[in-house]
Amino acid sequence: YARELGAQGVVVPLGEICSLWSALGAASADLLHIYEAVDIQSSPFDPARVMSHFAELEAQGLRQLAADGVDMKVARLARSADIRYKGQINEVEVPVVPGPLDAAALATLVGDFHRRYETVYGKGAGFHEARVEIVTYRVR
Fold it and tell me: How far is CA 5 from CA 23, 26, 68, in A?
């Protein structure tokens, strides 16, 4: 990196004095933008409504990455949703598959939420008969 920047020298801290926030780390770290939309929706979910949120968030993310000069061949987007049991306060973040989401994909998402909920709070903690709510849509 130093040669590419035209630097004549490089200082590399050794041992315990190495900085957590180094210039090299900042310069070589992946770019990350996070876009979120809040729209509380109870199950059963409307696929068009869910897709409209993800489509808008993904479009924002791609526009920002293009403005940042990122090669679109290497750009990656990841979806997730914060989901909770209806009436609860705390949500659990659940990954959401890329591509179109139909009723079957959203039913799978609910199953993924139940599994994730039990991973976080313990086996048997979930209430599978309860309705669930998507609270936040997120694209990274």
Answer: 12, 14, 19
H or E element in which residue 112 lies = helix 103-121
* pTM of the predicted model as reported, rounded to 2 decimal places: 0.80
Per residue of the chain (140 residues), give pLDDT as tens.
778 888 888 877 666 665 566 666 666 777 899 999 999 999 999 999 999 999 999 999 999 999 999 999 999 999 999 999 999 999 999 999 999 999 999 999 999 999 999 999 999 998 988 999 999 999 99
Buried (b) or exposed (e) across 25-38, using 16+ Cβ within 10 A?
Answer: eeeeeeeeeebeee
Domain ranges of the chain: 32-139
List the end-to-end C-alpha distance of the chain, in Å, as a whole number. 27
CA atoms of 101 and 82, how far apart (whole Å): 16
